[in-house]
Amino acid sequence: YLVAERKLGYWWRAINVPHGMTEGEVKAKMEDGVLSLMMPRVTQEMSKKRVQIEWESEEATGST
C-alpha cells in the first residue's frame, strides 16, 4: 500500500512490521525524498497461529 505525507522540519515515523519478521528481511531506500520499504509478503501460513485457550466451565466455578 502507499502512504503519502508531507511535513517540514525534523520528524520521524515508526512503522510496525508483521510479527515474526526479522531485520534482515526489511529493506529501506530513500530516493528523491521518497522513503521506500520493501519486505516479503506475509503468507497466510506465516500469519496463522493457533493459541490454546484455557477456561473453566460455570459448573466448575459454581456460578449461575
UniProtKB/TrEMBL annotation:
Belongs to the small heat shock protein (HSP20) family. This is SHSP domain-containing protein. Gene3D superfamilies: 2.60.40.790. It comes from Leucosporidium creatinivorum. SUPFAM superfamilies: HSP20-like chaperones. Residues 1-56 form the SHSP domain. PROSITE patterns: SHSP.
